[in-house]
Structure formats: C-alpha cells, structure tokens
Amino acid sequence: MTAAPEAAETVHPVDQLRPMHRLIPFAIQHVLVMVATPISSVFLIAGALDLDEAATSAILAAVFIFSGLGSILQSVGVWKIGVKLPFVMLPGGAATVLFITIGQGTDIETAVGAVIGVAMAAFVSVLLNLLFHHTGKRNRHPKSRTAIDDPSHLAQRPGDYRI
Fold first, then answer.
1. Rg (CA), the chain
2. Of 28, 119, 124, 139, which sits most exposed with the smallest number of CB within 10 A?
3. What is the pLDDT of residue 2?
4. Can you tell me the distance from the alpha carbon of 60 to that of 54, in angstroms, rounded to the nearest whole number?
5. What are residue 138's phi and psi, to 5 degrees?
6. The model's pTM
7. How does the average pLDDT of the chain come out, rounded?
C-alpha cells in the first residue's frame, strides 16, 4: 500500500503571520487603548462628581486592579467562568454614565452601593444558573423547533436560500 499524497497546505492571507515591524505598532495601539479607557472613565466620573485628587487616585487604582482581575479571569478561566480567550475587561460607557447619574442625583455612597448591589445580583444569578443548568444543555419544550434541529422552516418564500 502506498501512502496517499499529502495535500499541499495553503494558508489563507488572513491567517498568515505578519512581520514583526507591522505587529509592533498594533500592539502599542492596543496597550494605549487599554490604558486610556479606564483613565478617561475615572476622570469623567471625577469631573462630573467633583471628587478630590485622593478619591480620584483611589478610584483609578481600583479600576486598574479590577480590570486586571477581570481580564485574568476571562482569559484563564476558572471552572465554568471565563471564555479562556485573550479578553480585556474595561469599564464601559453605559455603566460610567449610570454611575455618574446616580452620583449626581444622590451621593457617591449611593452610587457605590448600587454598583455593589448589581455585582452581587449578577454573582447570584451566575451561581443559580450554574446550579440549575449544570449539564450544559438548554431546557426547552420538546416540540420547539430551532434552525439546528430543522432548518426547513427558514426558507419559506421563493428565492430564500436553505442552510
């Protein structure tokens, strides 16, 4: 018996490794964006809520610590938590605006309490989800139909393409 000839492996241009002189500027850009986002969020909060320098630096330190912890948790993954991909967790725009709105409407303590309350609710919901859906299978009605089970219902009109 003769071995089958190996197919020549061709790599798509998207999957090719780029030269180092082209990768370094992209790496610098990514680092600058990852640092600029938390800094701008903290200074936006500090300016909107008239915080002093000590509070601003404490918030900035906390944001960097928790962004790093969240990035490690997402990238490394612990048990069923984390995507196990290079993923950077940074403060978002909507959460920053909500924090500022609550802080301006009441006080900074209430805004911090709201953040802690939402974090606790999210943590409890993740725990409940893991407890009740530990098999990884979706609980759905046996007669429900999805595109994976039966793709025939997707192409109902003439000219539609079937999967």
1. 24
2. 139
3. 56
4. 10
5. -80, 135
6. 0.62
7. 81
Distance of CA 60 to the CA centre of its chain: 20
Q: Residue 36 corresponds to which tokens in the numbers above?
A: 């600029």
Query: Which parts of the chain have pLDDT scores under 70?
Result: 1-8, 134-163
Q: How far is the C-alpha of 101 from the C-alpha of 34, rounded, in Å?
A: 24
Helix (H) or strand (E) holding 36: helix 20-49
Which residue pairs, CB below 8 angstroms and at least 24 apart, start in 149-154?
Answer: none
Cβ atoms of residues 56 and 33 within 8 Å = no
DSSP 147: T
- Sort residue 79 into left (φ over 0), alpha (ψ -120 to 50) or beta: left
The helix-helix angle for 53-76 and 20-49 (nearest 10°) equals 140
Contact 81, 89 (CB under 8 A): no
Q: Residues 6 or more apart from 133 whose CB is under 8 A from it?
A: 139
Cα gap 49→27, rounded to integer Å: 34
